[in-house]
Design brief:
The chain is of the alpha/beta class. It has a single domain, classed as Glycoside hydrolase, family 3, N-terminal domain (TIM Barrel). Helix content is 45%, strand content 11%. The mean pLDDT is 97.
Length: 335
């Protein structure tokens, strides 16, 4: 396997639905994969609760065995889960519970930071080192995607909660992820399955950025770009493939960490492109880590081929792929 192919594998972030070290997962790690996201079923995602069968079968020992085996095969890795106060907590039953949303909103920030520290410490004990939380979006109207899944509808309070979450997680030796930049105040369609457009102007979006800025200032290690198409971009494009929006994250908010995409096969993100084409577009836009849904995982060899061909043809500069691979490796090594 060439160095370019290995780097292409290293910037992919596939979702696993179970703790199953199957042949596909082994091949991914043997080929250079450095990141895994432990996901949940659609029903678990909607309900915010892990199924009874999962709670019974996924013991702390099984988590430690799987994460230990993954590191044995691949070396330092990013091993990630969702741990949201207002949505999914993937390690429910393995760690202490996160505060309920209403309680979290009423807590002193020092108290909230301590609660997040305790949860993150227990997550780390399971072998996981990256949380895909907190959500820094603030809903400003009708939102069919995020309604009921954000920290608070008040921007200032959300900023305080985001800062507390990030500080608590960081104190536990874990990494956190702000999502979903640049924010989605109003969204009338589901971006995973429909063409969903955020219509606010860039200045209107900026009014919500204090929550993201609070997370950046507190030391968040990663930022996940959003799935929707942003009318404020020229031409309108999904955040995960937008050089303009990733540039604003870097320049205006001063974020220097890992930029990750949303699932590349979300309808609003992939559009009429192939998975390989959208992967190359995301890397060219400045993304470092490309989220691959469980459904799309069988397409990983095709995505890697598209990346390597793009480098060979000069469509994707090798230094951009190198920079993304270094960013993933640097965070994995630090953790």
């Amino acid at each position: 396997m060439s160095s370019i192919e290995s780097k292409a594998y290293s910037v992919l972030f596939p979702v696993l639905l179970d703790l199953d070290m199957n042949d596909d997962v082994r091949r991914f790690l043997d080929s250079g994969g450095r990141s895994l996201l432990f996901g949940e079923t659609a029903q678990e995602y909607v309900s915010g609760k892990m199924s009874a069968s999962r709670l019974e079968s996924e013991t702390l020992e099984k988590w430690q065995q799987f994460t230990g085996m993954a590191r044995k095969l691949a070396g330092p890795m990013l091993l990630a889960v969702d741990a949201d106060i207002s949505a999914v907590h993937r390690l429910q039953g393995i760690t202490p519970a996160l505060p309920a949303p209403g309680l979290a909103r009423a807590m002193d920030v020092v108290e909230l930071e301590e609660a997040c520290f305790r949860v993150a410490t227990a997550v780390r004990n399971a072998g996981v080192n990256l949380l895909l939380s907190p959500t820094a979006d603030v809903v400003g109207g009708t939102n069919v995607w995020l309604q009921g899944r954000t920290l608070c509808n008040d921007i200032d309070r959300t900023a305080a909660m985001v800062g507390a979450y990030v500080r608590g997680v960081r104190r536990a030796g874990m990494a956190s992820t702000l999502k979903h930049f640049p924010g989605h105040p109003v969204l009338l369609r589901q971006p995973a399955t429909e063409v969903a457009v955020v219509c606010e102007s860039m200045d209107q979006l900026r009014a919500y950025w204090s929550a993201f800025q609070a997370g950046v200032d507190a030391g968040a290690d990663a930022v996940m770009m959003g799935p929707a198409i942003f009318a404020a971009c020229e031409p309108p494009v999904a955040a995960s493939v937008s050089p303009e929006l990733i540039g604003l994250l870097r320049q205006e908010l001063g974020f220097k960490g890992l930029v990750m995409t949303i699932d590349l096969d979300h309808r609003s993100t992939i559009g009429n492109s192939s998975l390989g084409e959208v992967a190359v577009a995301a890397l060219n836009a400045g993304a470092d880590l490309l989220l691959i849904s469980a459904k799309a995982m069988p397409e990983i060899p095709q995505i890697v081929r598209a990346i390597t061909v793009a480098v060979a043809q000069g469509v994707l500069p090798q230094q951009r792929l190198d920079a993304a691979a270094i960013a993933v490796s640097a965070l994995a090594n630090r953790l």
